[in-house]
């Protein structure tokens, strides 16, 4: 640096006959740090052509727990397209019930991100029909890498696809292997056996389940939607409700809400004040034997307690009924129709459609299973254990996502309030089922004309 300034000084005093303006430019550049240089300085060789302008895309999401992993994944895209940077933003909420209306409001105000997470079925279809989401039918790689079944949760009745499937998730019960071994407990095969296992642990002074209801979404999202297929008969039963062949307050639905009440008795004391992260820590610290949750929590347990010995088993059905595992198409990424950078966003979504991205998702976020038809089995052992649960039995999606969350009051909001009320002792299972039936029959035609006979 000192030699450079000596040379510049000679230039300025006339030792070399060069324009002083040019010399001053060199001097100023020498004083600028690398991070202050023009953006083109970081571009690769474009074979003599001017580099394209730098573009910054915003990827909106409700998954606050995946920030570091997603940012790492997105750097791989930036290596392929150095002129496009994708920022991952979560708007300070992991509650989809908060994220969805917030995203809708941003879209209406023209402030929404370029690309953003959309859940399966009703919400995304509503946004597409209102013109907020771009059709992706002509996106390179979409139909080649995803089956029509995997695209269906983000495709409307006219065959318009508006989301690139990102991840599926599975449900189960995490369990502390040391505690199960200590009390010589077997893996419960029925719901009744699960409750009996919980009683044994509670009588021994161990918290049976780490779950809590301090976050409004946890009772519905983790517990109820995970156990429900076992009580209503999986896909066949769910479609019977959606088609009006069954009412939402029939005996099976009441029994499912009763299951929420029964399991709540084995939660920690003052569970109504405990948050989702509190539950995680209670389980991680060995203070609870089980935790009903989803595959997306794998990386938390592995990162925060790498020596903790735990396993997972399926949420068991009532005695005499078949096993169903909730395996759900959870997230796709849609393109904001009002984005100022649609071409760059489409390049990004094409990359999201590749097997390369599928491998990154499966291995950087163990428990987030790529629906890409070319995705390989995840490297993570616990992720493979979760997948094995869905491969052993029948599967179904989350009950509230399709059709019955398209109006007001929507099924998700109703179930969230009802399951929380049950866990607090302010609603009976019958009241919860009646509330669900009444709420949906206010706008959902099959609920208005449903049959109580089975």
Summarize this entry quickly.
The protein has 20 helices and nine strands. The chain is of the alpha/beta class.
Architecture overview:
The chain is globular, with a radius of gyration of 27 Å. Strands 1, 2, 3, 4, 5, 6, 7, 8 and 9 form a nine-stranded mixed sheet that branches. Helix 3 (67-80) links the parallel strand 1 and strand 2. The N and C termini lie far apart (86 Å). The protein is an alpha/beta fold. Mean pLDDT is 89; it is low at 1-44. Helix 1 packs antiparallel against helix 2 (20-30), helix 10 packs across helix 18 (411-424) and helix 18 runs antiparallel to helix 19. Helix content is 45%, strand content 13%. The protein is built from 20 helices and nine strands. It folds into two domains: 55-168 and 329-388, D-Maltodextrin-Binding Protein, domain 2; 170-327 and 395-448, Periplasmic binding protein-like II (D-Maltodextrin-Binding Protein, domain 2).
């Amino acid at each position: 640096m000192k030699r450079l300034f000596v040379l510049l000084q000679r230039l300025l005093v006339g030792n070399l006959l060069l324009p002083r303006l040019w010399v001053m430019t060199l001097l100023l550049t020498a004083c600028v740090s690398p991070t202050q240089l023009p953006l083109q300085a970081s571009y690769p060789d474009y074979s003599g052509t001017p580099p394209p302008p730098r573009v910054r895309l915003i990827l909106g999401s409700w998954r606050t727990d995946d920030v570091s992993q997603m940012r790492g994944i997105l750097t791989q895209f930036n290596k392929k397209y150095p002129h496009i940077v994708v920022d991952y933003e979560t708007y300070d909420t992991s509650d989809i019930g908060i994220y969805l209306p917030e995203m809708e409001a941003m879209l209406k105000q023209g402030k929404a991100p370029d690309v953003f997470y959309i859940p399966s079925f009703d919400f995304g279809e509503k946004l597409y029909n209102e013109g907020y989401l771009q059709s992706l039918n002509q996106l390179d790689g979409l139909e080649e890498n995803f089956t029509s079944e995997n695209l269906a949760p983000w495709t409307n009745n006219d065959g318009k696809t508006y989301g690139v499937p990102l991840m599926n998730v599975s449900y189960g019960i995490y369990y502390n292997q040391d505690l199960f071994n200590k009390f010589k407990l077997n893996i419960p095969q029925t719901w009744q056996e699960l409750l009996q296992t919980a009683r044994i642990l509670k009588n021994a002074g161990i918290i049976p389940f780490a779950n809590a209801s301090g976050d409004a979404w946890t009772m519905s999202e983790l517990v109820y939607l995970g156990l429900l297929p076992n009580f209503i008969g999986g896909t066949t039963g769910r479609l019977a409700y959606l088609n009006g062949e069954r009412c939402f307050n029939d005996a099976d639905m009441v029994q499912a809400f009763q299951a929420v009440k029964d399991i709540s008795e084995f939660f920690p004391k003052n569970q109504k004040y405990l948050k989702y992260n509190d539950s995680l820590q209670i389980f991680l610290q060995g203070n609870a034997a089980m935790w009903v949750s989803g595959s997306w929590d794998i990386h938390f347990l592995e990162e925060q307690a790498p020596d903790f010995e735990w396993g997972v088993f399926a949420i068991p059905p009532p005695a005499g009924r078949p096993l169903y595992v909730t395996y759900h198409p959870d997230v796709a990424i849609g393109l904001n129709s009002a984005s100022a950078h649609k071409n760059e966003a489409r390049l990004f979504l094409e990359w999201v459609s590749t097997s390369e991205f599928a491998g990154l998702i499966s291995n950087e976020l163990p428990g987030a299973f790529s629906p890409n038809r070319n995705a390989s089995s995840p490297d993570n052992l616990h992720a493979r254990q979760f997948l094995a649960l869905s491969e052993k039995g029948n599967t179904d999606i989350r009950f509230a996502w399709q059709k019955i969350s398209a109006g007001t009051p929507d099924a998700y909001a109703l179930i969230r309030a009802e399951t929380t009320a049950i866990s607090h002792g302010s609603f009976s299972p019958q009241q919860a089922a009646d509330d669900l039936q009444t709420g949906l029959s206010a706008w959902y035609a099959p609920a208005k004309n449903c049959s109580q006979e089975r």
